[in-house]
Design goal:
Structural class: mainly beta
Shape: elongated
Largest sheet: 5 strands, mixed
Order of helices and strands: EEEEEEEEEE
Distance between the termini: 39 Å
Number of helices: 0
């Protein structure tokens, strides 16, 4: 049985003390548009390099660290996960045709 997917505002937070706080929980972009997703991390010694960034649907979005490009109309989530897998944050991105 597969685990249930997390809702966009949910995150897996074990008692590591590490937190990912995005500037926004949801973005809407156009096909071909590129945006930067900005997050803050705590504690202060945690950096973006301590996480992997992926798309839940790579046919809708391409993700390279915090740069996101809309590929086709649809909805996908950006999944930011700690390298050890104990902390995860999901951000919803809606891609619209222009």
């Amino acid at each position: 049985m597969l685990p249930q997917p997390l809702l966009p505002q949910q995150s897996v937070q074990e008692d590591t003390g590490i937190k990912i706080t995005p500037k926004q929980e949801k973005y809407t972009i156009g096909v071909g548009e590129v945006i930067n997703i900005n997050c803050t991390y705590s504690p202060n010694n945690v950096t973006e390099q301590d996480f992997t960034w992926t798309a839940s649907d790579s046919s809708v979005l391409s993700v390279y660290w915090n740069k996101v490009r809309g590929l086709k109309a649809g909805t996908s989530e950006i999944i930011i996960k700690s390298l050890d897998g104990t902390v995860e944050k999901r951000i919803t991105v809606v891609v619209q045709e222009d």
